[in-house]
Amino acid sequence: MLQFNIRGENIEVTPAIRDHIEKKVEKIERYFTDGANATAMVNLKSYNHSQTKVEVTIPMKNLTLRAEERHDDMYAAIDLIVSKLERQIRKYKTKVNRKFRERDGIGLAFATAENDTRAQNEIEEEEEDLTIVRTKQFDLKPMDEEEAVLQMNMLGHNFFVFTDAESNETNIVYKRKDGSYGLIETSAQ
């Protein structure tokens, strides 16, 4: 069962908004065998009372679902988010079922969606998007975050993988849509 953590920035989360979000996002539970047993973190942001940004993140055991949408109508943005999440689930399900038919793991998390009416050629079109067309190899040089951002900007990329000089872990810096920078820290499990 999905739990909800709904926050609003520059917007009040009314009971009507909360009900609409819960009703729409709960639809994705049908794709999972034992229910989702996760917390859906929903952030609503209003920009000058004209445009709304809706972000939904659902971290689960073997996969994290995330989608965001900007729209003039918040309710329309929520509907579009649910469509994006359903597409992500179907894409993962198709990929996982093909690769892990014999194995345990993430494949067991997906229920068989009998009501999935998409045609086989649509699934094949999505699979074509996953084709790797180029492979690069490079040495991970130990450096700090600032040097990694400088390297990324010099190369003209929007992300850069590096070894953190202090932790010796592989990290990623990336350029965000708003022009600022983000850091993804990894750790061995």
TrEMBL record:
InterPro entries: HPF/YfiA_ribosome-assoc, HPF_long/plastid, RHF-like, RHF/RaiA, Ribosom_S30AE_C, Ribosom_S30AE_C_sf. The keyword Cytoplasm applies. Its main location: cytoplasm. Pfam families: Ribosom_S30AE_C (PF16321), Ribosomal_S30AE (PF02482). Residues 128-183 form the Sigma 54 modulation/S30EA ribosomal protein C-terminal domain. Interacts with 100S ribosomes. NCBIfam families: yfiA. Required for dimerization of active 70S ribosomes into 100S ribosomes in stationary phase; 100S ribosomes are translationally inactive and sometimes present during exponential growth. This is Ribosome hibernation promoting factor.
